[in-house]
């Protein structure tokens, strides 16, 4: 195709996307209305419903859809819950085209209006060009943007430049349970002809400048349970004469990180690769607005003062966060009770070279050591219900070239090349199981508020993100054909 006809084609696609903004937003509104929270067991039915909605949406585009049953899983309290099925979809099978597999998730983090949202988290509300709602950016918006882009080609009756495969799940926010096994099982079938994998489930580093992501941290999640007697007690009647489980737990949690942010678990930094000088230089050259980032967080001060230190601690070093305590009274008012059993929840974002089983052993030994010094008769139980590995990719891959070109076309500038401090468990699974290249091509901005109150995606990013994906289909198709023509010519010569 000549370059003038290819830019005319692109123009036609972009015009269609601009003209159908309202339809695309309506589609997002329907998806955001479903409280598909995979973290809270009582909402599992909604996650199931969301999977069916996603399957129906893809089926109307002509995708052949298979909702693969993953069975059930057991919660720490013994309750058995069905796992949502994983959607495997296929659209197009032209042997001349590369096959691009898109991964996304349609489950969300918990959200309630009372958490401090300005609007109902399950009613998409547009304010000043932002589309607010739980899942707007993480990850329903980006999944729909990809689908909108595919739909545009179909609506305009343009030949598909790539074959599409879809892996859509409903358990990402709960650690992608069951997914790795499915990927292994499908390695020789569903994944056998996949050439490239694209994930769009993270954010840019800035509010305005697009980015391409080549690495993410892993996450090891822990429960630390302290159990005293068999029931909660009156703190006036029993306070002062017993070893309180919550005091034990707070001492245990307090032993994990010091006030400078350094993890106190012996050995935890041992396998983190030393920082090479050329790598440090890379960090110096990244554009990163500390003030903007601080405003996005809504905090007064970071633990570190320089851009390099902050990025290193987000991407390159592990961190430990405490998420909550189950069993402790957290409602307004004061309940003068001594809880009988409390469970602390924390996670360690790990980086390349850290081994999950070693991390688990270090955590257990450390907590048992601290606990034994308290001479408490209470029962301690430490478990690691989730462990996701970090991921790092080769930015010289064709996939990154195609994504970079598509970004330049749509946003008019080159992307930041970034890593991400958060975790997409499937990234590393895909890389290991399929041995194919993986790119993270985010369309959400740094101020989208993933997992936070007032999560949003801007109308601009949602619509330009749809264009980005459409442009990406054309770019990867072109680069892939060129690569194959070159290697074919080499073989003949
Ligand atoms: C980056 C992605 N949108 C996301 O939010 N991932 C979650 C996945 C996770 C990790 N541990 C448990 N769930 C995250 O990074 O928290
Ligand atoms: Zn996500
Ligand atoms: Zn998330």
What's the structural blueprint in terms of helices and strands?
Elements (H helix, E strand, L loop, with lengths): L2 H17 L1 H12 L11 H17 L3 E5 L3 E3 L5 E3 L3 E6 L7 E7 L19 E3 L2 E3 L7 H16 L7 E7 L9 H8 L9 E4 L11 E6 L2 E9 L5 E2 H4 L6 H10 L22 H9 L4 H8 L9 H10 L2 E8 L10 E2 L2 E9 L6 H17 L6 E10 L2 E2 L5 H14 L4 E5 L4 H10 L2 E4 L15 E3 H34 L1
Parallel strand pairs: 5-8, 5-9, 9-19, 10-18
Antiparallel strand pairs: 1-4, 2-3, 4-8, 6-7, 7-20, 10-17, 11-15, 11-16, 12-14, 13-15
The site of one zinc ion has 5 residues, from loops.
Family: Belongs to the peptidase M20A family.
GO biological process, one term: regulation of protein metabolic process
Keywords: Hydrolase, Manganese, Metal-binding, Metalloprotease, Protease
Q: How many domains would you count in the coordinates?
A: 2
What structural class do the secondary elements suggest? alpha+beta
Shape: globular
Q: How do the strands of the widest beta sheet line up side by side?
A: 1-4-8-5-9-19
How many H/I helices? 14
Tell me what the structure shows.
Its cofactor is Mn(2+). This is Carnosine dipeptidase 1. Belongs to the peptidase M20A family. It is a single chain. With 493 residues, this protein is of the alpha+beta class. 38% of the residues lie in helices and 20% in strands. The protein has two domains: 3-216 and 390-492, Zn peptidases (Aminopeptidase, 3-Layer(aba) Sandwich); 219-272 and 317-388, Alpha-Beta Plaits (2-Layer Sandwich), CATH 3.30.70. It contains 14 helices and 20 strands. The strands form six sheets. It has a six-stranded mixed sheet, sandwiched between helices. The structure holds the ligand C[C@H](N)C(=O)N[C@@H](Cc1c[nH]cn1)C(=O)O and zinc ion (2 copies). One zinc ion is lined by residues 105, 138-139, 172, 201.
């Amino acid at each position: 195709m000549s370059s003038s006809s290819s830019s005319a084609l692109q123009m036609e696609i972009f015009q269609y996307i601009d003209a159908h903004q309202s339809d695309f937003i309506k589609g997002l509104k329907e998806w955001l209305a479903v409280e598909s929270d995979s973290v809270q067991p009582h909402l599992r039915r909604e996650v199931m419903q969301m999977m069916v909605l996603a399957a129906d949406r893809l089926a109307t585009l002509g995708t052949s859809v298979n909702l693969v049953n993953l069975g059930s899983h057991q919660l720490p309290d013994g309750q058995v819950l069905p796992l949502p099925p994983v959607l495997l979809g296929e659209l197009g099978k032209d042997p001349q085209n590369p096959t691009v597999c898109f991964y996304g998730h349609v489950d969300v983090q918990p959200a309630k209006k009372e958490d401090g949202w300005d609007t109902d988290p399950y009613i998409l509300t547009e304010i000043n060009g932002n589309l607010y709602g739980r899942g707007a950016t993480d990850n329903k918006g980006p999944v729909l943007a990809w689908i909108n882009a595919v739909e545009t080609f179909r609506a305009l009756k343009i030949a598909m430049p790539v074959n599409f495969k879809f892996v859509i799940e409903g358990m990402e926010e709960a650690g992608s349970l069951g997914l790795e096994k499915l990927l292994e099982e499908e390695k020789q079938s569903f994944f056998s002809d996949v050439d490239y994998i694209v994930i769009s489930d993270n954010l840019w580093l800035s509010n305005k400048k697009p980015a391409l992501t080549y690495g993410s941290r892993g996450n090891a999640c822990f429960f630390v349970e302290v159990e005293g007697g068999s029931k909660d007690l009156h703190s006036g009647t029993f306070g002062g004469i017993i070893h309180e489980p919550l005091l034990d737990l707070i001492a245990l949690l307090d032993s994990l990180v010091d006030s400078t942010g350094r993890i106190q678990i012996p050995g935890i930094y041992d396998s983190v690769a030393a920082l090479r000088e050329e790598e440090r230089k890379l960090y110096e050259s990244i554009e990163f607005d500390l003030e903007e980032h601080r405003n996005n967080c809504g905090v007064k001060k970071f633990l570190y003062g320089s851009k390099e230190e902050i990025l290193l601690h987000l991407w390159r070093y592990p961190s430990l966060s405490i998420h909550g305590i189950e069993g402790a009274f957290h409602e307004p008012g004061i309940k003068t009770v001594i809880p009988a059993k409390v469970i602390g929840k924390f996670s360690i974002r790990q980086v390349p070279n850290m081994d999950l089983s070693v991390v688990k052993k270090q955590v257990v030994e450390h907590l048992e050591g601290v606990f034994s010094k308290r001479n408490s008769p209470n029962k301690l139980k430490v478990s690691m219900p989730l462990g996701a590995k970090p991921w790092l990719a080769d930015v010289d891959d064709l996939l990154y070239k195609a994504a970079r070109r598509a970004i330049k076309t749509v946003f008019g500038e080159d992307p930041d090349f970034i890593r991400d401090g958060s975790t997409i468990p499937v990234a590393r699974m895909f890389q290991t199981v399929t041995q194919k290249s993986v790119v993270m091509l985010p369309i959400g901005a740094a101020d989208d508020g993933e997992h936070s109150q007032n999560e949003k995606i801007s109308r601009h990013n949602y619509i330009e993100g749809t264009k980005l994906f459409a442009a990406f289909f054309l770019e990867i198709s072109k680069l892939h054909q060129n690569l194959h023509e070159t290697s074919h010519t080499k073989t003949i010569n």
